[in-house]
Structure formats: structure tokens, C-alpha cells
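Summary for the funding panel

The consortium committed to producing paired sequence-structure records for every protein in the target list. Below we show the first two records in order, beginning with the earlier of the two.
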Amino acid sequence: MIHQILCLALLATSGYSFVTQEVAHKAATVIYQYSGPFPAEKLLNYDQATIKDSNITFDGPAQDVSFPKLKTLKIEGSRIGNIPDGVLSAFPNLKNLAIKTSTIENFKLSDINAITSLKSLEVDDIALNILKDNSLNKLAGLKSLTLNSAKIDEIQNQAFGGLGKLEVLTLKGDNLKKLPAVVLKPLKNLRELYLQHNELTRFGPENVPALLELRKVDLGMNPIEDVDVEGLKKVAPKLEDVSVGDTD
């Protein structure tokens, strides 16, 4: 599960030892085309870490290792194997998490709820299919959520429950044919909504509740037949930009 994946830095893998003394702070590290046990010690003193084109396996129980300096974690084009349960408090200050075109066993979006410090979450090219109620309701400080090419064809009414501070929502390249207004109702501070490359044919106040901060809606590359701009401005009085057509 995803909370297991994000606890990977807690695992003591054979052949590795952890540095306990204070060492110099470093900005970023990239783990590229690596195959084998996760080298957790490589993350100890970095602000940002990227795991790219790697094949990660895990052995042994979780250990008490923390990464308070890590602010950004990206997993790209990698395969993450079976990971034992861990403790997500190892990432107490993680602000940005991106998981792109990776194979992750037993992926569940709701497991990310444990990382309550997140401000930005991006999940690309990983099948989610259904966004269930309260999937991320513990991420009260989340400002930006991106779920692209996730094969989403259903969003339950309270899927975005608890995300009252969200400002940017991006759902590109999914299978959305409808988006009832009730789905967006919890997003009181939403400013930008990106829905390109879906299957929407109509868009209006039936899709958007009273969102007083909404300024931009992008519907590019949908088979749009009708957009009720005037109706949208009644429920979103600050709306300035509604894009339709071939925009990405």
C-alpha cells in the first residue's frame, strides 16, 4: 500500500547502516536506474529526493529512522516491490509528493492520508478508477492536487471531503463523463480547475457549486457541445477564464 511505500526510508536493508551523527545539510539527490534494496541512508540529509527508473525491493522489519529534512519526494518510472508496514511519521515535514508512471503494489490513494504535512500531491499514469469518499480527508493543508491519466470514471460525492484549503485541482486525461457540482462543494478555496482530455460534453452551474474564489476552468480537448459561461459566473463571481478547445 502507498503508506508502506512512503515508509520505505524506515527499512533497514541488508548491507546498509544508518548514520546517527549530525552531518551537513544537502539540497537534492537522485537515485537513478538502481536495482536492489532501498538505500535509505541516501535520504538522510536532503531536502529533495527523486527515485527514477529503479527497481526497489525491501527486506527486514521497519526500523526507527526519521527524515525530518525531506520536503519533496518524487517516484518516477520505477517499480516498487512488496514493502512491509512502516511508520509514516518518518516524513514529518514532507510537503510535496509526486508518483509518476510507476508500478506500485496495492496502491491506495487513501493511504496518503497519513502524511498530513503535504501541500502538493501529484499522481500520474496510475490507475485509480474510482475516487472514493474522503480519500484524502486528512490532508487539511493540501493546496494542489493532480490526478492525471488515472482512468478515473467515477468520483464519489465526498471524494474531496476535508480539502477546504485546496486551490488547484487537476484531473487531466481521465475518463470523466460527468462531474456533479456536489463533488466540488468541499473545495471552498478552489481557484483553478483543469479538466483537459476527458469526456465532458456540457459544463455549467450543474458542475460547479458556489465557489467564490474560482478564477479559471480549462476544458480543453473535451468533446464539449455547450458551456454555460453566464451560469458559471453566477456561482463563481470571480471567474475570469473558461478555456475550451485544443488547449493542453
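The next record, for a separate protein in the list, is shown here:
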Amino acid sequence: MGIKLYYTTVTASRTVKSQQAEVIRILDSKSIQYELIDISVGGELRDEMRSKAGDPTAVPPQLFNEDNYCGNYEMFSEAVEADTVEQFLKMA
């Protein structure tokens, strides 16, 4: 599967929770298949996400197409506004 969404099931941040839920809702509404990767199950997944994103402080949600970094919530949101989600996810 191409699209990977790094997220967390364990967070006290309402912002992170709402951003993750919005990304999932939009992907589902566009019938875009994706794989959820829960970084809360181990620190190595969080480190992997940050390494792939090229940002040692990256927080979920982070989107990838395979191992190609697509962006974070803010970048995804801009793509939704511009109706360029498929290009953002490197699907087009």
C-alpha cells in the first residue's frame, strides 16, 4: 500500500487528535487507501517517522507515499483547500 499515515493513539493534545481525525476523514471521503502506523506502540516508530520526515521534532499526523515524505497536517490542509490532495500525496 502506498499512502502511510503516522499517527498516535496516545496523546493529551486535542490538536493532534483533531488533526489526525480530520486527515482520516478526508482520506476516507476521497476513497484513498492508506496504512495507519501508530507511533505510540514504540519509540522506534516515532524515530522512523521523524527520520523520514527529516524533522527531529515532527509530531503526528505525518503523511508518506511509501517512504517519500508528503508532509504534515498543515501541508495536507493546504492541499485540501487547493483541491490538490492527489498531487500532494504523490499519486498523480
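Regarding this second record: DSSP finds four helices and four strands in the chain. Residues 3-89 form a domain with the Glutaredoxin fold (CATH 3.40.30.10).
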